[in-house]
Specification:
Helix content: 40-55%
Largest sheet: 6 strands, mixed
Oligomer: single chain
CATH class of the largest domain: Alpha Beta
Structural class: alpha/beta
CATH topology of the largest domain: Nucleotidyltransferase, domain 5
């Protein structure tokens, strides 16, 4: 199998992709020991064109034609479980977000195939083909790659190229293509791929909302991300999440205070990293009111709010099963909690098609206009 390792052939291949209505894309990367993913292969397949691209053999500027394809509005980019691929492309391309985009895992949710169907199961469903999984744990950074490894990698996109039109036709005939558009828009929001250290706190669970806790949490998370990025190691190699939470709670300012923490490695406080983190905490806590992130407080739950949410969960599952859609595509647990509190909650379950298929009935159930009953083991809706 030919592998593209030079800029000229890549430019010629990308010219073919620009003439296609869509291109299926996948990547192979390594990330177990690094903060930044190491891109090892890019696979692309459009009607009449397919190739494996070796980014390790190419200069960064050689990839410019590929980023042009990713940005081309005339070519739909098809991925399966796209988020990590998009993160890689967004960083390496200098901010190019593939668009328009179609994620077949999201499309599968609208086809009623579950919340996060595996790629091999999706191929089996639409194409009745078995996917070779023998090279799932390949070290894709090692060269040379065997013919079997390259064939395995390319199959990921040739199957995707073949199943995408079938999925799209099914969604179009059911009037559901627009249902996945909002999910795709959220997936291509550059904010979710933000690696600015000062925003690293947002990926953690906020356990308290006091100003000093939030300031310490932000400072510790930012310090850890700066260390992890500069050293190119996973965050947990610097400090685990449990240590960040404990530091935010206890706010250690010297070596002895760090040594009293259970989740922090012994001797950390006397190390250079410990001293740098202590200084970062000092600076954050000296100006905590301005430095702490602003957290919107959730509205207080109504009386018996927990029971309301549980009933809404049953209704959501019933409605999702009745129309053959994954429940997560319609509403999240957070949406249900908001609806339990507020009839006019700003959540997606009360907007657009989601309101039509679920939101209106959710409000009706909340106010007793409909009821849930069991008949021969099946949930039924009845006018109250």
């Amino acid at each position: 199998m030919d592998v593209i390792t030079e800029g000229g052939p890549l430019k010629a291949f990308c010219a073919k992709l620009l003439e296609a209505p869509f291109v299926a894309v996948d990547t192979e990367f390594m990330r177990e020991t690094t903060f930044w993913p190491k891109l090892c292969l890019i696979q692309a397949a459009a009607p009449g064109a397919e190739a494996v691209i070796d980014p390790l053999a190419l200069a960064p500027e050689d990839l410019a034609p590929l980023w042009a394809v990713m940005a081309a509005k005339s070519v739909e980019k098809v991925f399966h479980a796209a988020r990590q691929d998009l993160e890689i492309f967004f960083k390496l391309s200098g901010g190019v977000m593939p668009a328009p985009l179609f994620d077949t895992q999201i499309g599968a949710m609208a086809c009623g195939l579950g919340d996060s169907i595996a790629y091999d199961a999706l191929v089996q469903h639409f194409l009745k083909r078995r996917v070779d999984k023998s090279h799932r744990f390949t070290d894709w950074a090692r060269r040379p790659l065997s013919e079997d490894q390259l064939t395995y990698a390319l199959a990921d996109v040739t199957h995707l190229r073949d199943l995408f039109p079938k999925m799209r036709d099914k969604l179009e005939s059911a009037g559901r293509l627009a249902w996945v558009a909002e999910e795709h828009a959220a997936l291509t929001d550059p904010a979710i791929y933000d690696t600015e250290p000062e925003n690293a706190w947002a990926r953690l669970k906020v356990r308290r909302t006091t100003v000093d806790y939030l300031a310490a949490l932000r400072a510790a998370a930012a310090w850890r991300d700066r260390q992890a990025q500069s050293r190119d190691v996973p965050r947990a190699r610097i400090l685990k999440d449990d240590a960040i939470y404990e530091i935010a709670e206890q706010k250690p300012r010297n070596a002895a205070a760090f040594d009293r923490l259970r989740a922090v490695p012994r001797g950390f406080g006397n190390s250079r990293m410990g001293q740098e983190l202590a200084a970062a905490l000092d600076a954050a806590l000296a100006n905590a009111a301005d430095y702490a992130p602003v957290i919107e407080r959730s509205p207080a739950p109504p009386q018996n709010g927990g029971a309301t949410v549980e009933l809404l969960k049953v209704l959501l599952r019933h409605e999702a099963e009745s129309i053959g859609v994954a429940a997560r595509l319609i509403a999240s647990a957070g949406d249900l909690e908001l609806i339990a509190v507020d009839d006019n909650a700003d959540c997606r379950a009360l907007k657009g098609w989601r309101r039509d298929v679920f939101g209106e009935r959710a409000l009706a159930l909340k106010h007793g206009r409909i009821a849930l009953t069991l008949e021969r083991g099946k949930v039924k809706l009845k006018e109250a």
